[in-house]
Structure formats: C-alpha cells, structure tokens
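does this look right to u?? iron/sulfur cluster version
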Amino acid sequence: MTVNVGIPRALLYYEYYPLWNAFFENLGAKVVLSEKTNKKIFDDGIKNTVDEACIPIKLFHGHVMNIKDEVDYLFIPRIKSIAKDEYICPKFCGLPEMIKHAIKDLPTIISTEINLFKSTKGIKKTVCEVGKYFSDDEKNILSAYERAYYKYRNDKKAMQNKRNTENNKKIMIMGHPYHLYDVYLNMNTLEKFEAKEVDVVTPEMIDIKTINEYAKKFEGNLYWTFARKLIGTTMYLVDRKNVDGIIYISTFGCGVDSVVGDLVEKYIRRKSNIPFMLLTLDEHSGEAGINTRIEAFMDMVKWRDKFENNIPAHG
Ligand code: SF4
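got this back:
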C-alpha cells in the first residue's frame, strides 16, 4: 500500500520542494501538497496560531490544516541550520512543537532535525533518519537522496539561466522565497510588474556562488543564512548596477527583516542611486494599496530616464 506524506505549501517548500518531492517519490511514497494559499487557509492559519507569530508561520498552520486528514505522515523537519557556520530563523526550529500544540488530530509528524552548522556532511545521517519511515535499506535511502539532489541542483541552475529581454526595465524583487512566490500573500506582485513589461529578477536567478562572494565583503558577521543571501544580493546589485529598481518584500512581524531589511535599504541608499521600495505585507494589506505603490514606483523609474542626472526621488 502506498504511504502518503504531506508537505505544507509554505515556508521552505518554496526552496526545497523539488528536492523533498523527488526524495519521497524515489522511496515509493506519494507526496500530498496542500492547496495553493487561499482565503480559508489564511484564515485558518490566523485563527490557530499565537498572535505574535509572523504571517508566514501563521500561513504554515493553515496549510497543515488543509492536508492533515489526508496523509499518513506530515513532513515538518526541525530546521536549525542549512549551511555551515550559519543559523536559520529560530522560528523554523520550534515549528514541529508549535504545530503539535496548536492543531489537534494530527498524523505522525516527521520532525527530524536538520542541523548543518558544524558540517554539511551531517546531511547523510539526517536523510537516513527521514528515509527510515519509508525504507529499511540505508543504501536505497541514500541513493534516493542523491538522485533527488541531482534533480534539485539542475532545476536551480535552470532558474539561474533564465534570460531577460534586454530592452525592458529590469526590477529586482527580493525577500524570503515564501514572500516572493506565494502569490496569494504578495497579491501577485511579481506578475503585476511583468504586466508592465518589466523584466523581474529574483535572488534565485543569481548564481549562489556569486552571492556568497559578495556577502564575504560585508563588514560584519552574517550568521543568518537569509541575511547572507539578501545582503550578498544587494552588494552584487549595487556593484553591477544592472537593475533599474529594487523592491524588498517583507511581512509584518518578521524579526530577521527588521534588521536585514534596514541594512539592505541603508546600503542601497548610501552606495547607489538605484530606486528602492520596501513593501511590508500583513493580513490587512489591501490590493489597491499595493497597486498604487507599484504604479508610483514604476512612474518614478520611468521619469528618471527624462533627466540627464538621473536623480532618484528620495534624493
Ligand atoms: S525569517 Fe521572518 S518571516 Fe521567516 S519565519 Fe522567521 S520571522 Fe517569520
């Protein structure tokens, strides 16, 4: 009988789904995804999470509720670190407990710890711990992971090779992947820009090695993985000056962005004249407000072309 494993379409689903999906399928399991974010998922998440949680964590709860009755297992790893010498936001670490305490009648949760802080070699042990729910054969588990990782890496490279139209304005839209790619949460911000014949680029389209090289030049210790990626991206953009504007999407209650968003904005304003806008979303954000800000931003970007000195609106 096929075993169903549920993956909530939230948080690091937007980064690792191709890897997790291929791994579980290689082990003979059927992956069940929650629906795309919708009003019910959003409302269920808000109702079932502590008030002080950030929006993406609330959304995660809503996605768990959406699939919990359809699956044998829920995959909610306890993620501490996904890169050597770096930590991830602490909310990922407590996620299995948050879910268990907030939501009743759950299936078995696979909450294996992912902690690559000391060495990325630890991934083998982690993979075997997850895989043992589906196979007794360690070789089979490791082979399933290697094939899945190969596919994941190729998918990533394909994204980096995406070419833009050279004549259009180019706008970088940056932020955590679940802010950028959950279209319900961000009210289709990326598509709204594309509809204005703008080429949208995201951090995922830049070679991660390049981002890391730039991040190393930052004065200060970047011990958060999200910070390294976003600050490295910013330094790359400011150095290359190959975008016409930068949008940073954040959500209300994000502790990481309260520091990183500020650092990014100050760095851009100090070192370049690239127009910058911070879009902070919360459960009350209205689409009309987002549309107005996008319109105004694009008007300003186009307006600058008319003036030789190309001075941004913020001075
Ligand atoms: S990084 Fe920010 S948005 Fe993401 S889980 Fe942590 S607090 Fe929430």
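Residues 101 and 311 are 53 Å apart (CA to CA). idk if thats expected tbh
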